[in-house]
Amino acid sequence: MDTALTREQVLALAPDDASAKAAGGLTGAAKWVSFGADDDAIWGECKGSGAKPYQAQAERATLATRCSCPSRKFPCKHGLALLLMYVQSAATFAGAARPAWVDEWLSSRKDRAAKKEKAVETAAAKVAADPAAAAASAAKREEGRWKRIEAGTAELSRWIADQFRRGLASFGDEQRRDARAMAARMVDAQAPGLSVLLLDAIEALNGGLDRQREAIEQFGLLQLAHEGVMRRAALSPARLADVRTALGWVYDKDDVAALGEPVSDRWRVLGQCQFERDDRLHERRVWLRGLDTGRDALLLDYAYGGRGWEGAWTSGATYATTLRYFPGSAPLRALAATAQAVAVDTVNDADVDRAVDAASHAFAANPWLPCVPLVLAGSTPARHDDAWRLHTGAGDVRLAIGDASAWSLLAFGGGQPLSVMGEWDGRRLRPLAAWAAQSPRQRWTAEDAL
Predict the structure, then answer these.
(1) Rounded to whole angstroms, how far apart are CA atoms 115 and 119?
(2) d(CA 13, CA 15)
(3) I need a surface site. Which of 109, 218, 243, 424 has the fewest CB within 10 A?
């Protein structure tokens, strides 16, 4: 961990304001049974509601944290408090022997990394030993999956046609049950991405007449995916990658790390968010923008069973690193190599027209993109007709935001124009961060952005 870590950088790791506030209340030594640090980790035992204290720990190299508390947030308040205490008084952490539970955690992280590296080496060895056989085996597996997907999307296409023949206005409980069954069928056909699109379309239909156009667009994307599957032999590599991603056919990270398009730059962290996929799976999205290339990137990570994230990215900070992009017509998702924080001069945000134009080009290149990052400079939030909007130089933008976060954003700006960053799906902007041009280091983040 960087010895120059500051309180602001630790608080930037917090998943929301509530966690940061709760962590502040746990920084007193009386709250902790023990704590310590060495070259590899920081650890401590914090008093909780039960007889056994919570065991919190952080890996110094990556700032990855883990805690035995039942919280579903990463980092939890105990992990944040531990880092805050270390920042306040690192000397008091010295001299303690590392506990066995910290050793076990560090060892498990090293074992996972070693197993992953070994798997890559084993796969490479098999290819090197008999590349023709390896290629033939991979092609056979791939063709088998394409056939299952082709059968599934053909069935989905017929079902969509039936709904339009009947008329969406008559879409009732029976059709909703059929739609859920069809969504499950897409998972069976190894096209889970289409299951998500279909469920989104049904949710839009449940929203009444105001969202019927949105539902029709989703049905159109589903039909377009079927057309892409049927015509895959004629598609360019980038367009085929778009289809695969829309289907939910995930590219192997090791392949991307080795073969993905490399882009080296100083990457500014525009904003980030995390949320629960289910009871034990968490997702984190970190949006970056290259200061020299102007490229946008998405770092998508998952944490399962309380393991925490592999690395820390501070919103508003800038890192020098090389990204490897996943393939596609408008590539956004990427993998990051080891990143080094760097200091930069004030960065000027692009004007609104250019930002909106870039987002439009991305959706035109890949219509299945769920969202793109959008920074709207000189914007002011306002409430109209029980809905929140953002006043910009290019017109009003509808916001997907809860009232608590919206009022917080309004108070942060104090009526003055802000640069608002969020995820734009072509209809609504989901704000993730905001800052003023004159004080970009002071940032607002949405607690209930997702």
Answers:
(1) 6
(2) 6
(3) 109
Please tell me the distance from the alpha carbon of residue 71 to that of residue 348, in angstroms, as a whole number.
38
How far is the CA of 377 from the CAs of 1, 338, 392, 420, in angstroms? 34, 30, 8, 6
pTM of the predicted model, to two decimals? 0.75
Residue-range domains of the chain with CATH: 7-103 (no CATH), 133-246 (no CATH), 252-342 (no CATH), 352-445 (2.40.50)
Secondary structure of 252-299 as H, E, C letters? CHHHHHHHCEEEEEEEEEEEEEEEECCCCEEEEEEEEEECCCCCEEEE
Confidence at residue 126, expressed as pLDDT on a 0 to 100 scale: 61
pLDDT of residue 137: 66
> Hey, what are 414's tokens?
């104090």
Q: Which residue has the higher pLDDT, 303 or 121?
A: 303
Q: Output the six-digit token pair for 260.
A: 């993905």
90-118: b (≥16 Cβ within 10 Å) or e: eeebeeeebbeebeebbeebeeeeeeeee
DSSP bridge partners of 45: 34, 55
Q: Measured in whole angstroms, how far is the alpha carbon of residue 366 from the centre of its chain?
A: 19
What are the C-alpha distances in Å from 138 to residues 110, 126, 129, 143? 29, 12, 15, 9
Q: What is the pLDDT of residue 83?
A: 93
Share of the chain above pLDDT 90, in %: 58
Query: Could you tell me which of 87, 117, 66 has the C-alpha nearest to residue 310?
Result: 66
- Report d(CA 180, CA 195) in Å as an integer: 9
- Contact assessment for residue 222 and residue 300, using Cβ atoms and an 8 Å cutoff: no
Lowest mean pLDDT among 64-73, 193-202, 292-301: 64-73
Spatial separation of the C-alpha atoms in residues 24 and 27, rounded to whole Å: 6
Q: Of 37, 32, 29, which is closest to residue 1 (Cα–Cα)? A: 37
Q: List the beta bridge partners of residue 341.
A: 319
Q: What is the pLDDT of residues 98-115, one digit of tens each?
A: 999 999 999 988 887 777
Residues 282-335: tens digit of each pLDDT: 889 999 999 999 999 999 988 776 566 777 788 889 999 999 999 999 999 999
| Residue among 393, 446, 436, 390 nearest 416 (CA) | 436
Q: Which two tokens stand for residue 417?
A: 């124009």
Q: Which helix (H) or strand (E) holds 319?
A: strand 318-325
